[in-house]
Amino acid sequence: MAPSVAIVGAGFGGLCMAIQLERAGVRSYTVFEKADGLGGTWRDNSYPGAGCDIPSHLYSYSFEKYASWTRRYPEQPEILGYLEHCADKYDVRRKIRFRTEVRRAVFDGSQWQVTTAAPPADGATSMEKGTEERTETFDVVVTGVGQLSRPRLPDIPGMSDFAGVSFHSARWNHDHDLTGRHVAVIGNGSSAAQFIPRVAEQAERLYVFQRTPNWVIPKPDATFQPLTRLAFRLVPGLQRVYREWIYRYAEATLYPALAQGWSADLLRKRALRHLRDQVPDPELQAKLTPAYPPGCKRVVIDSAFYPALTRLNVDVVTDKIVRLVPQGVETTEGVREVDTIVYATGFMTTDFLAPMEITGRGGRSLREQWAGGAEAYLGISVPNFPNMFLLYGPNTNLGHNSIVFMIECQVNHIMACLPRLAAHGPIEVRPEVMAAWRGRLDAAMERMVWGGGCQSWYMTAEGRVTNNWPGPTTLYRKLTAKPPHNAYRPIPAS
Ligand code: NAP
């Protein structure tokens, strides 16, 4: 009999898992989604200018080609539309339980007891107004909760004293018109770089509070002309060849830069040229020049960010923020008076799977097992947590290629595990396999640029890189495509 599968999250990961189960004829799955719509991060991040700096044809499932992309780099509404299209085409929407949050999952020795919270069926609309907990039994749990799903607010004194309107970039307040406002943006990562040009056009005054500059390279965006779109629709194999070309190009040029290889210096030179081309003022250039190697933090890929910073109504503020006061942001140099603050301060990235409580074999807490930092074999499986699989788990994030590619590799691996656990009962990754994996990761990590003297969301406070994959993605595909059986064992009798 097919195993029953609980999938947590209806973003790129959870949907991919559901679709592949559906395509394999396995109908015994449920997708739990805490929001009232699908799309995960592409539903949550609706800030002006939100989009992806990985090209559309690669930032999509390999099995679902899409001739409707209107531009080379997709914007958020189009990505969300693509995911809606996939959910409908593969008929997985009927299996998604929206507004249902997974709170706990406990392995009872043979199956998972999954406890969810949802609004009562009597029509109450808010999760906060009262939720009903319900526990159901599944053979398998697959988590697809992403690494960038929980917004992180900074810890700045006086935040509650601010008298204006404030919000996080991933929870954009679309009711708050920024026209003519005095706005502070705290943070200058990929999200801020995308919305700052839009906000700068509306606001009367915009202060960009930059703690650390980022390396920025151009985004060669363009709309696809009707003829190109027609060709994508009609010419057999064109989408596949184009996708493969983008993938190979990123792998051959960007990956070696992150591994401090032949293209590292080229990347630095490209970014410096982009800065000089777009920012004529030497003083501003100096402010925007990072002191760490490119790629140590996520490189920003954007062509509109620097020009926005040169506008007369925009100031890049590098003074240290001391506190927030009712009328604005106080720095070591004085108060910048604003009526709106946007926190573009990123996400809680190293607490994988939080706030869910996961209890594995013998009552082991995942949180405790991961006290030194999250880790998983292939980023997918964790010793002592049988029949539990992670999508976009530890050490599977990329700074140079498509996460959707990685998710597909993970789903393939999980699909290959299902027949064995269905036939012989729960399986878990062997501890010695995990230990060897850890050693291999640590060795590969040494040549990567992420430990190169910067603080980033890729690492824990203690400096361990728990988020990024330190190899070529071609290797990841090869490793996840191997028959998984030797890496797993039936659970030992306790
Ligand atoms: P982020 O890269 O983590 O950037 C957070 C920013 O907030 C940084 O500039 C950080 O400064 C600043 N910050 C944090 N706490 C602060 C404090 N207390 N005071 C002052 N500044 C503070 O977050 P993000 O921009 O939301 O992007 C997160 C990730 O999402 C990206 O790296 C990328 O992987 C993904 N993303 C991708 C795309 C895409 O096009 N594919 C678009 C958007 C986002 P420091 O640098 O000094 O820490």
Distance between the termini: 25 Å
- Tally of separate domains: 2
CATH C-level category of the largest domain? Alpha Beta
The second-level CATH architecture of the largest domain is: 3-Layer(bba) Sandwich
Largest sheet: 5 strands, parallel
Helix content: 25-40%
Task: Note poorly predicted spans.
Answer: none
**What compounds sit in this structure?**
NADP nicotinamide-adenine-dinucleotide phosphate
CATH homologous group name of the largest domain: FAD/NAD(P)-binding domain
How much of the sequence lies in strands comes to 15-25%
Radius of gyration: 23 Å
Number of helices: 13
Quickly give the structural class. alpha/beta
Major beta sheet, strand line-up: 3-2-1-7-19
Overall average pLDDT: 96
> What is the general shape?
globular
Tell how many strands the DSSP assignment holds. 21
Q: Determine the CATH topology of the largest domain.
A: FAD/NAD(P)-binding domain
Keywords, separated by commas or semicolons:
2 domains, 494 residues, 13 helices, FAD/NAD(P)-binding domain, alpha/beta, binds NADP nicotinamide-adenine-dinucleotide phosphate, 17% strand, single chain
Short account of what is shown:
By secondary structure, the chain is α/β, with parallel strands linked by helices. 30% of the residues lie in helices and 17% in strands. It folds into two domains: 289 residues, 3-Layer(bba) Sandwich (FAD/NAD(P)-binding domain), CATH 3.50.50; 103 residues, FAD/NAD(P)-binding domain (3-Layer(bba) Sandwich).
